[in-house]
Design brief:
With 150 residues, the protein is mainly alpha-helical. The protein folds into two domains: 4-51, 50s Ribosomal Protein L19e, Chain O, domain 1 (Orthogonal Bundle), CATH 1.10.1650; 86-144, Non-ribosomal Peptide Synthetase Peptidyl Carrier Protein, Chain A (Orthogonal Bundle). It is built from eight helices and two strands; from the N terminus they run αβααβααααα. The chain has a two-stranded antiparallel ribbon with strand order 1-2. It is rod-shaped.
Protein backbone atom coordinates (compact mmCIF):
# COMPACT_ATOMS: atom_id res chain seq x y z
CA UNK A 1 0.00 0.00 0.00
CA UNK A 2 1.51 3.28 -1.12
CA UNK A 3 0.77 6.08 1.35
CA UNK A 4 3.44 8.59 0.35
CA UNK A 5 0.91 11.34 -0.51
CA UNK A 6 -0.87 10.90 2.84
CA UNK A 7 2.47 10.91 4.64
CA UNK A 8 3.49 14.12 2.87
CA UNK A 9 0.19 15.84 3.69
CA UNK A 10 0.32 14.70 7.34
CA UNK A 11 3.90 16.01 7.60
CA UNK A 12 2.79 19.40 6.26
CA UNK A 13 -0.07 19.46 8.85
CA UNK A 14 2.38 18.64 11.67
CA UNK A 15 5.00 21.02 10.14
CA UNK A 16 7.67 18.35 10.50
CA UNK A 17 9.58 15.73 8.53
CA UNK A 18 7.87 12.80 6.81
CA UNK A 19 10.14 10.47 8.79
CA UNK A 20 8.36 11.43 12.01
CA UNK A 21 4.83 10.66 10.78
CA UNK A 22 3.44 7.39 12.20
CA UNK A 23 0.43 5.48 10.84
CA UNK A 24 -1.62 2.95 12.82
CA UNK A 25 -1.12 -0.38 10.99
CA UNK A 26 -4.69 -1.54 11.80
CA UNK A 27 -6.28 1.51 10.13
CA UNK A 28 -4.22 1.64 6.90
CA UNK A 29 -7.29 1.22 4.62
CA UNK A 30 -8.92 4.28 6.25
CA UNK A 31 -5.72 6.29 5.78
CA UNK A 32 -5.51 5.25 2.12
CA UNK A 33 -9.06 6.52 1.49
CA UNK A 34 -8.33 9.94 3.01
CA UNK A 35 -6.96 12.18 0.28
CA UNK A 36 -7.52 15.69 1.66
CA UNK A 37 -5.91 17.52 4.53
CA UNK A 38 -9.31 17.72 6.23
CA UNK A 39 -9.67 13.92 6.16
CA UNK A 40 -6.18 13.53 7.61
CA UNK A 41 -6.91 16.07 10.37
CA UNK A 42 -9.86 13.90 11.42
CA UNK A 43 -7.61 10.83 11.61
CA UNK A 44 -5.02 12.82 13.58
CA UNK A 45 -7.67 13.82 16.13
CA UNK A 46 -8.66 10.11 16.43
CA UNK A 47 -5.00 9.18 17.06
CA UNK A 48 -4.68 7.04 13.93
CA UNK A 49 -1.89 9.31 12.63
CA UNK A 50 0.66 10.51 15.17
CA UNK A 51 4.01 12.26 15.30
CA UNK A 52 7.03 10.31 16.54
CA UNK A 53 9.21 12.06 19.14
CA UNK A 54 12.33 13.85 17.93
CA UNK A 55 15.49 11.79 18.17
CA UNK A 56 18.43 13.66 19.65
CA UNK A 57 22.14 12.95 19.28
CA UNK A 58 23.47 10.85 22.13
CA UNK A 59 26.27 12.34 24.28
CA UNK A 60 27.28 8.92 25.66
CA UNK A 61 30.25 8.44 23.32
CA UNK A 62 31.42 12.02 23.90
CA UNK A 63 31.32 11.50 27.68
CA UNK A 64 33.31 8.26 27.39
CA UNK A 65 35.90 9.99 25.19
CA UNK A 66 36.25 12.82 27.71
CA UNK A 67 36.93 10.30 30.50
CA UNK A 68 39.60 8.62 28.36
CA UNK A 69 41.23 11.97 27.54
CA UNK A 70 41.27 12.77 31.25
CA UNK A 71 43.43 9.65 31.66
CA UNK A 72 45.76 10.94 28.93
CA UNK A 73 44.53 8.52 26.27
CA UNK A 74 43.26 9.25 22.73
CA UNK A 75 45.51 12.29 22.42
CA UNK A 76 47.81 11.00 19.67
CA UNK A 77 48.76 12.81 16.49
CA UNK A 78 45.69 11.48 14.65
CA UNK A 79 43.34 13.09 17.20
CA UNK A 80 44.89 16.56 17.06
CA UNK A 81 43.27 19.20 14.90
CA UNK A 82 45.28 22.33 15.69
CA UNK A 83 49.01 22.90 15.48
CA UNK A 84 51.23 23.20 18.55
CA UNK A 85 50.68 26.97 18.80
CA UNK A 86 46.91 26.44 18.70
CA UNK A 87 46.90 23.74 21.39
CA UNK A 88 49.41 25.45 23.70
CA UNK A 89 49.57 29.27 23.56
CA UNK A 90 52.91 30.96 22.78
CA UNK A 91 53.03 32.52 26.21
CA UNK A 92 52.68 29.17 27.98
CA UNK A 93 55.53 27.70 25.89
CA UNK A 94 57.62 30.75 26.79
CA UNK A 95 56.85 30.39 30.50
CA UNK A 96 57.90 26.73 30.50
CA UNK A 97 61.13 27.55 28.66
CA UNK A 98 61.98 30.43 31.02
CA UNK A 99 61.33 28.37 34.14
CA UNK A 100 63.65 25.61 32.91
CA UNK A 101 66.43 28.05 31.98
CA UNK A 102 66.15 30.12 35.17
CA UNK A 103 66.07 27.00 37.32
CA UNK A 104 69.20 25.70 35.60
CA UNK A 105 71.01 29.04 36.09
CA UNK A 106 70.10 29.07 39.80
CA UNK A 107 71.49 25.55 40.26
CA UNK A 108 74.74 26.59 38.53
CA UNK A 109 75.02 29.68 40.76
CA UNK A 110 74.19 27.87 44.01
CA UNK A 111 76.65 25.04 43.34
CA UNK A 112 79.38 27.54 42.48
CA UNK A 113 79.85 26.70 38.81
CA UNK A 114 79.29 30.34 37.80
CA UNK A 115 79.85 33.64 39.60
CA UNK A 116 77.09 36.05 40.47
CA UNK A 117 78.02 38.50 37.71
CA UNK A 118 78.05 35.74 35.08
CA UNK A 119 74.68 34.55 36.48
CA UNK A 120 73.21 38.04 36.05
CA UNK A 121 74.55 38.31 32.52
CA UNK A 122 73.18 34.88 31.53
CA UNK A 123 69.85 35.62 33.27
CA UNK A 124 69.37 38.75 31.16
CA UNK A 125 70.36 36.88 28.00
CA UNK A 126 67.82 34.21 28.85
CA UNK A 127 65.16 36.85 29.49
CA UNK A 128 65.91 38.40 26.10
CA UNK A 129 65.35 35.08 24.33
CA UNK A 130 69.02 34.53 23.46
CA UNK A 131 69.02 30.87 24.52
CA UNK A 132 66.88 28.31 22.74
CA UNK A 133 67.03 25.74 25.53
CA UNK A 134 68.87 24.52 28.63
CA UNK A 135 71.26 22.63 26.33
CA UNK A 136 72.03 25.87 24.49
CA UNK A 137 73.10 27.44 27.81
CA UNK A 138 75.49 24.50 28.42
CA UNK A 139 76.99 24.89 24.94
CA UNK A 140 77.37 28.66 25.47
CA UNK A 141 79.15 28.09 28.81
CA UNK A 142 81.56 25.57 27.25
CA UNK A 143 82.35 27.78 24.23
CA UNK A 144 83.04 30.87 26.35
CA UNK A 145 84.71 28.92 29.20
CA UNK A 146 82.54 30.56 31.86
CA UNK A 147 82.34 27.63 34.28
CA UNK A 148 84.80 27.78 37.21
CA UNK A 149 84.85 24.18 38.50
CA UNK A 150 83.52 20.87 37.24
Amino acid sequence: MKLSVQKRLAASIFKSSQKRVWFDQDRLPDIKESITKQDLKGLISEGVIRLKPETSISRGRARQKKIQKGKGLQKGKGSRKGGLRARIPKKDLWKVKMRVQRGFLKILRDKGFITRSIYQNLYLKSKGGFFRSKRHIKIYLDEHKLTEKK
